[in-house]
Amino acid sequence: MKSIFALFLVVACAAQAGQAVSVQPRPFEGRNERGEAVGDAVKMPHITLPDRRVAARINDMLSITLLGALGPKDAGKARGAEAVVLPGAFSQEYTIARNDGRILSFVFEQEGCGAYCEIYHSYSSFDVKTGRMLDDADLFTERGQAALERRMQGERIGRYRGMLASLQKDLKRLRKNRRRSVEAGDDLQGRIDLNSRCAGGGDDPEPVSGKFNVQLAYKTVNLIAERCGNHAQRALDDVGEVWISITYENLRPHLTPYGKALLLGEGDARQDSLFGQLLRGKLGGTIGVTVLLAKDEGNAVGGTLFYDKVGQPITLTGTLDGDALVLAEAAPDGEAAPLWRLRMEANRLHGKWVGKRELRAELAP
């Protein structure tokens, strides 16, 4: 895959956190849907730190969120990789946006093929001290998030309106050309229709979203909104991704106490949410498990479970009622689904696993 990103090895001395962060490239030892070994087509970073638990947390989070498997214990094969089937034409590379001992931030570039091949980007950042994968709620207050989304929404509308005005001028000039082709006129009209919808106008307007991805660079936070046009409309979307870069100091009014501690070095606030983070634990005191949970709409909760010895992903679905969490494991047709009946207490989950027998269950970051 031809990439605008260079894959490289970064070793940084972490003056602020007091840890050396080593990032080494490794291939993903899995297969695609045609049964072919993926090999070097999918590259993953492998992190080593003096605190092995933190390094394992980062490696597992990257491997689970990107590829659906537990990370490797060393720079070799991911655990459970044989159960992961990637699309036949999928490939991946990465670059490091920040590695200064406080924050480790990646940009992943993936190429997938549908009607035609296309490059996508995703962004992952970690608190090096704890291994926590950072999300918007960690960094931004609710009011701050809303303000940033309004700013992005306005920026996107402005970009599409600007492109729309330019395309309309092009169409006017084209119509004066007696030698114009039908194809050129149709192409311009298609672009005008798309940009009009994406700017919130036209006969079938698109709702203009202010949602964005976050990239933590050394001096700025980059807010990145995906293009408006879908996969089939990619060739007509001349605006594409929209970036807004904000210095950390200018971001101050929008930050949570934890965000200020991490990004500005002010205070020592921590973030202890159990959602969106790896939870480790035991069943019956002996069976190792790794769980990743996410809150959905209402009181719905979803997630992924790994029995560490097996390493294959199992889907979890359930509900949260106050501090009571009930989760069901996906099970083959005709088999009863094992249940997790847990309670949230401080920074951990505890309760019981109910399957063919009952086992004590404990989970914590």
Describe the structure.
Keywords: Coiled coil, Signal. This protein is of the alpha+beta class. The chain has 3 domains: 125 residues, Heat Shock Protein 90; 113 residues, no CATH class; 87 residues, Quinohemoprotein amine dehydrogenase alpha subunit, domain 2 (Lipocalin, Beta Barrel), CATH 2.40.128. The strands form 4 sheets. An 8-stranded antiparallel beta barrel has the order 12-13-14-15-16-17-18-19. Helix 3 packs antiparallel against helix 4.
Attribute tags:
365 residues, alpha+beta, Heat Shock Protein 90, Lipocalin, 3 domains, four-stranded mixed β-sheet, 6 helices, 19 strands, disordered N terminus, coiled coil, signal
In short:
With 365 residues, the protein is of the alpha+beta class. The chain is 23% helix and 38% strand.
CATH architecture assignment of the largest domain:
2-Layer Sandwich
SSE order in H/E notation? Answer: EEEHEEEEEHHHEEEHHEEEEEEEE
Shape: globular
Indicate the CATH class of the largest domain.
Alpha Beta
Largest sheet: 8 strands, antiparallel, barrel
Distance between the termini: 36 Å
Number of strands: 19
Share of helix, binned: 10-25%
Strand content: 35-45%
- The CATH topology assignment of the largest domain is Heat Shock Protein 90
**Low-confidence spans: pLDDT under 50, at least 5 residues?**
1-18
Coiled coil: 157-184
Keywords: Coiled coil, Signal
Signal peptide: 1-17
